[in-house]
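subagent[fold] <- orchestrator: predict structure for attached chain, return tokens only, no commentary.
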Amino acid sequence: MTDSIILSANKLVKRLGTRDPFQLSEKLGVIVRFTSLYRIFDNFHDVVKQLCTRHDNRPTLSIDDEYDVQDLLHALLKLYFKDIRDEEPVPNFAGASARIDFLLKNEQIGIEVKNKRDSMTSGLLSSKLYQKFSYVRRMLVCIG
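subagent[fold] -> orchestrator:
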């Protein structure tokens, strides 16, 4: 058993391309953070369905709009992340200001929640997200 764990660890170290413990720790930390986010996002719909199926038809959290999604997502993010900033303002860029729904400060990850309305096409939703993140990315490049 121990030999297989050591062999697996050695394979992982080779794939990550370093034997330096600090670099290895940093690379593994990035993997863990993104794995945690993936788990949250991949299982989000199942969590919502479970909340809607309560014992004895008890009242539950209703997911009706974007703010409900943000509230539930914020609670789930707290399982893995300590410093979560909601409605974090991003500095002005070219006279415009914006806010990002969540900023995982230590991980330097921004999360924007959008609820697709029936009248909104996937293309329009993609366009809105692209515009928001193009703005945020340009702003971050300017402030360094």
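orchestrator: received. Logging for downstream: Residues 2-143 form one domain. Strands lie at 84-93, 96-104, 109-111.
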